[in-house]
Design a protein that fits this description.
It is elongated, with a radius of gyration of 29 Å. Helices cover 10% and strands 26% of the residues. With 87 residues, it is mainly beta.
């Protein structure tokens, strides 16, 4: 009988009992996306409310980014960037 060395034995383990599982690859097409920019000047019109954003969501639009020009001192508009998978 062989002595274990730090928790391992020197015996060769049986690996023949495992079943072979093949890898299957499928060709997939890259997703196509549509983009929309909603530009609001809060000095002239109200910001979009939850109801309007929910309507856009029902149409498949996802809000990805908001750019507020006021934070950069480059202007006063707010840009909402949205995207959805092409239909």
């Amino acid at each position: 009988m062989q002595r274990p060395i730090r928790g391992f034995t020197m015996e060769k383990q049986d690996t023949h009992g495992s079943a072979f599982i093949p890898m299957v690859y499928e060709a997939a097409q890259a997703a196509q996306w549509e983009y929309k920019v909603l530009t609001i000047d809060p000095r002239e019109e109200a910001l979009p409310d939850a109801q309007y954003l929910s309507e856009l969501g029902k149409e498949g639009w996802v809000l990805t980014t908001i750019l507020d020009e006021r934070s950069t001192s480059k202007g006063g508009k707010i840009h909402y960037y949205l995207m959805r998978q092409s239909q």
